[in-house]
Amino acid sequence: MARIELNNIQKKWGAFWGVRDVNIDIKDEEFVVFLGPSGCGKTTTMRMIAGLEEPNEGEIKMDGEVMNDIDARDRDVAMVFQGYALYPNMSIYENIRFPLRMRGVPKDQHDGLVKKAAGLVELTDYLDRKPSALSGGQRQRAALARAIVREPQVFLMDEPLSNLDAKLRQAMRVQIKHIQRALKITTVYVTHDQIEAMTLADRIVIMQSGMIQQIGTPDEIYNDPTNTFVANFIGSPPMNLIEGTLSDGTFVADGVRVTGIESTTEGKVTLGVRPEDCTVSASTEAELNGTVYGLEPTGDVTYLTVKAGDKLIEVKADRTYRADLDVPVQVAFDPDRIYVFDSEDGKRIQ
Ligand SMILES: Nc1ncnc2c1ncn2[C@@H]1O[C@H](COP(=O)(O)OP(=O)(O)OP(=O)(O)O)[C@@H](O)[C@H]1O
Ligand SMILES: [Mg+2]
After folding, report:
1. What are phi and psi of 347, to 5 degrees?
2. Which ligand is nearest to the CA of 80?
3. pLDDT digits (tens, 9 = 90+) for 138-153
4. Distance between Cα 323 and ligand 1 center (Å)
5. From the centroid of its chain, how far is CA 158?
6. Best mean pLDDT range from 131-135, 136-140, 166-170, 241-245
7. Does position 20 have pLDDT exceeding 70, yes or no?
């Protein structure tokens, strides 16, 4: 059981706001991912939940109990740090075992628990080594094993997979989600990798410059971004954002014309359309008329970059699609998947 509430959390250093107006209610057993660019306040927020950093204002509650004045060691959380923080003089076995000793877990259980955790992160053969004799990825997995060796109320994980190669990352993602579901432990996970956020989270918290931009399920964040920052942060390649003019339900920009937009807004707007909602078309009536600027076949999909005026627009084309550079190309937009944002403040209009 652990519900975590962050009520109006502020963290300031001098005049600099590290974290500002953070409000979130994390449900028991929930997997919440904080996502945002470098420096947006993810680690700081996590360190405040752990008790390693004190908020200037606001309340942190666990299961209804205010934690602000509770010492880090008295909060039942296990944290995986961004830089692993393994003890260099201890073997990997002793590193993983450390929390069991600290928490007074009966000695006869240690060996079984350490080996089980090591097995989950595929480190069974490395238990005798010192951290210095491991690769970055192996150290990261050791840090993960140390967090999961006992069952805390809360897991806090700060970019635990950032040093792994793509294949191992994917495998570990599945592993982390599986472990979290099996142990039913409330988890707060920090990353700047949107794929990690989308695949792991029950809910994603998107941060920018210390402030929350949106909180929602992966589907909500993907389908209903509240502003251009969120729209542009999720998706790979990200949503195309095209500046233009809206008049009488018709959007116009260089090489782009979209009709039938249900909005009463007139004037300058930003139109958003995801690369996967664009289709190469034979019709000159299609929404986008431009030229082929780039073509990247990847096997399962072909990334097509279309130049229209001075704008480059990304399209996920069929995997068999091929074209010469600079030839004219038409692209249709899925009419149900068009977004309109305010050009000034980036807020979603429609
Ligand atoms: N002790 C400190 N004193 C002053 N500023 C700090 C301190 N710790 C962090 N900051 C600043 O607060 C902001 C948020 O830092 P934080 O470490 O939370 O970012 P982050 O989102 O985790 O970034 P990254 O993805 O790079 O790890 C940054 O601009 C950082 O420079
Ligand atoms: Mg960080």
Report:
1. -70, 145
2. 2
3. 898 899 899 999 888 9
4. 45
5. 11
6. 241-245
7. yes
For a mutational test of ligand 1's pocket, the pick from 12, 34, 35, 43, i.e. the residue with the most ligand atoms closer than 8 A to its C-beta, is 43
Residue 279 DSSP one-character state: E
The whole-number pLDDT of residue 81 equals: 83
Kindly list the domain boundaries of the chain, sorted by start residue.
4-232, 238-342
pLDDT at 137 over 90: no
Cα gap 315→304, rounded to integer Å? 5
List strand residue ranges (DSSP E) for the chain, in order: 4-13, 16-26, 31-35, 57-62, 65-66, 77-80, 154-158, 186-191, 203-208, 211-216, 240-247, 250-253, 256-258, 267-273, 278-281, 288-297, 302-308, 311-317, 328-333, 339-342
CATH of 238-342, one of 2.30.110.10, 2.40.50.140, 3.40.50.720, 3.40.1190.10: 2.40.50.140
Q: How far apart are CA 65 and CA 74, in angstroms?
A: 13
Q: For the residues 155-180, what does the mean pLDDT come to?
A: 88
Residue nearest to atom 8 of ligand 1 (CA): 44
CB 208 within 8 A of CB 37: yes
Instruction: Check if 4-232 and 238-342 are the same fold.
Output: no
Query: Which ligand ends up closest to the CA of 36?
Result: 1
C-beta of residue 227 within 8 angstroms of C-beta of residue 269: no
Q: Could you name the CATH architecture of 4-232?
A: 3-Layer(aba) Sandwich (3.40)
Tell me the whole-structure pTM to 2 decimals.
0.91
